[in-house]
Amino acid sequence: MSNLYWLTDEQMARLRPFFPKSHGKPRVDDRRVLSGIIFMNRNGLRWSDAPKEYGPAKTLYNRWKRWGDMGVFARMMEGLASEATVPKMVMIDATYLKAHRTASSLGLKKGGAVA
């Protein structure tokens, strides 16, 4: 697959302070796994469809789930946003956000009012 996404050295250096400490067995390659997680989320793919270059799909999912539950990704976003040059301005590119098919069952009435 030629359109794979890989984090750069600079991006990894900015993200590394937010990584949790590794206890016991060393983690698999952070760059490979995080690049894979970003690729999967950007493209809206199922974990089982992960390109082999990112390693086992189970590893990608497990890291995504574990770090998500620990708040690691939220801290990354907050930390990166706090580095913004314009105070109190946070911009997020929502180009790749997709609505899940169950979003229609969130209790919204016609016209967008919450039930």
UniProtKB/TrEMBL annotation:
Domain of life, source organism: Bacteria
Origin organism lineage: Bacteria, Pseudomonadati, Pseudomonadota, Alphaproteobacteria, Rhodobacterales
Organism this protein belongs to: Sulfitobacter litoralis
Protein's name in the database: Transposase
The Insertion element IS402-like domain, residue ranges: 7-77
One family name in Pfam for this protein: DUF4096
InterPro entries the UniProt entry points to: IS402-like_dom, Transposase_6_like
